[in-house]
Design brief:
79% of the residues lie in helices and 0% in strands. It is built from 2 helices and no strands.
Length: 63
């Protein structure tokens, strides 16, 4: 049961991140009435950073 709750929290975290990125895209498109192509590069950079952080572990400084 603990595994289920962990997966629910992981899903909420990912969903919140996707919603935040989509909100920024919609807000920019709504205000400027143009498609900002920089969001694709931002998505790729954030995804790569997340993969590298997960692979090498997150360290919070020198202990």
């Amino acid at each position: 049961m603990l595994y289920f709750f962990q997966q629910v929290l992981n899903g909420l975290h990912s969903g919140a991140l996707y919603a935040l990125l989509a909100f920024g895209y919609v807000l920019t498109n709504g205000i400027l009435h143009r498609t900002n192509l920089a969001y694709g590069a931002l998505f790729a950079f954030c995804g790569q950073t997340m993969i590298l952080t997960a692979a090498f572990g997150y360290q919070r400084g020198v202990e």
